[in-house]
Amino acid sequence: MLKKLSIQNYAIIQELEVVFQKGMIIITGETGAGKSILMGALGLALGERADGSMFRNREKKTIIEVEFELTSLERVNTYFEELDLDPDACIIIRREFSSTGKSRAFINDTPVPLNGLQRMASVLVDLHQQFETLELSNREFQREMLDAWVGGVPALNSYQTVFNQLSHTRKAITALHATMLKAQQEKEYWDFLLDELMNLNWQLGETKRIEEELNTLTHAEQIRTGLGKMVGVLQEGEQPMVARLRTMVSQLQSLSGYHQRLGELAVRLDSAYIEIKDVSNELESVLDGLTVDDRRMDALNERLSSAQRLAKKHNLSDPDHLVEVGERLQRDRKVLESSQEQLEALQKEERALLSSAQELAESLSKKRKAGIPKLEKAVHDLLKRVGMPNALFKVELSSGELHIGGSDTIAFLFDANKSGRFEDLSKVASGGELSRLMLILKSLVATSLSMPTLIFDEIDSGISGEAAKQVGLVMEELSYAHQLIAITHQPQIAARADQHLFVYKSERSGEIVTGIRDLSKEDRIDAIAKMMGGDSPSKTVRASAEEMMRK
Questions:
Q1: Which of 116, 287, 340, 467 could form an SS bridge with 112, CB 3.0 to 4.6 Å?
Q2: Strand ranges across the sheet with 406-415
Q3: Where are the beta strands (DSSP E) in 302-430?
Q4: 3-state SS of 185-226?
Q5: Taking a C-beta distance cutoff of 8 angstroms, is the pair 502, 29 a contact?
């Protein structure tokens, strides 16, 4: 509920603080005293745009602050999270306006963006002003009202869960289609590139192996000449080195019995003999396997050139990276092949979700159709009570494609004078008629919707007598479960208030300023009597005012 409104330096208000009670709060006062200014200030605090001409003293800041007390945080928790605020049952919204017209917004003393403040305010206050574009003309609001009346909110929530899943699946299908189309367009090129790589069949590390073999083949003749000489020295000729070492080992072994160190040296010389013999054999093996092969060189050069051309084509610094390119192309081709299976699975899921959504939408539609006649009758009964006996209300429902609200399009139609021509509310209903119709609808669904503090600005325009009395009664009934604040000129409505606030003008330091008083019971009788009989009501009028309050 709204607990407090504080205003500094706004229009003809120097400084003002209003404390609100529960139930039905009525604001009255003379014309021009500042009642609408009060609502304007409240609207600014809730995020409306400012009119610079309304700032009283340009040398001072304008500050407007509203305080709310909640019994449950359920409605606002999402907004606390969105604005990165700590949840609190006490919410203080403040807007400050500088002399230059710039404004800042705060929630619980934390700066917040204006759109964040507006979203938070939307669940705290329903500010219904007569001459604004009314929410009642909004199709979504009309659907919300009908669903609240027929008890269709749980069914709608179930449907919306499935519909959101369906929308998500359809987006996934669309995205996958686009990916597959692009991949299909590139598949022929991918296949061509992959065939090139498969035909080359380049292996990791092959660049180094080919370069090493080419280096050997290029110098094969030089290597053969050198190795031939070495093998000749080691194994051939009149005194080959290997044979001479073998003889020296034998001689040293035969002398080792005569000197202690000779045995050790014989072992070392024998090891050297074995190593040199092994090297000699290896050199001979290399020499035997080494040939000058121009055809092999040409083949290797051609293969390396082919790999280098492909590497350049793929912007690679090393042909060995062609292996990675081939693996990637193979993966891409497999993804394209698996995408078809994924698409079929998504399409199957879409069909199941669509069937479920259609079934839930149809069930919801039946519930709405069944409840429409009862809503129309309840509205007609209340229209007569609030002084609109010739007005007719009609709910038009037509089915079509699925959307977030089901399969139905809902339109509230109105005929102000039983002309037989029902038209859209915004075209045929006056501001006062719309206000009363809004009051009627909200009173009918108040127990089904979690509505915030309701504020009505001059909802009684154009009515009096019994109609005003009935409007007051409907407002009183609505206030049993919701805090309701209304500006009124009708004594029949003011008499039903739990709290009566009186706005007045006074002169202070040569300036006209606005003030507000919370009226006592006696003061209320006087105020209502003046509303009935002017500034100097008779005893009879005052007695009537007292009787009106008592009833």
A1: 116
A2: 392-403, 406-415, 423-424
A3: 392-403, 406-415, 423-424
A4: HHHHHHHHHHHHHHHHCCCCCHHHHHHHHHHHHHCHHHHHHH
A5: yes
Predicted TM-score (pTM) of this structure: 0.62
Judgement on whether residues 189 and 280 belong to the same structural domain of the protein: yes
**Is residue 1 situated within a structural domain?**
yes
113 and 195 both lie in a single domain: no
Whether 136 is covered by a domain: the verdict is no
pLDDT tens digit sequence for 131-187:
343 466 678 888 988 998 998 989 999 999 999 999 999 999 998 888 777 777 676
Partners of residue 513 on adjacent β-strands:
506
> For 333-353, what is each residue's pLDDT tens digit?
776 677 788 889 999 999 999
| Assigned token pair, 447 | 């127990």
- Positive or negative, the Cα torsion across 96, 98, 99, 101? negative
CB 407 within 8 A of CB 399: yes
Kindly state whether residues 297 and 200 are assigned to the same domain: yes
Whole-angstrom distance, CA of residue 43 vs CA of residue 117: 12
Give the end of a domain, one of 282, 312, 337: 337
Rounded-to-integer distance, Cα 35 and Cα 504, Å: 9
* Residue 99 shares a structural domain with residue 221: no
Q: Which domain holds residue 201?
A: 178-337
DSSP 395: E
Cβ(54)–Cβ(42) below 8 Å: no
Percentage helix, strand, coil for the chain under 3-state DSSP, each rounded to 5: 60, 20, 25
- 71 and 208 in a single domain? The answer is no
Total structural domains in the chain?
2
Output the six-digit token pair for 492: 């029949």
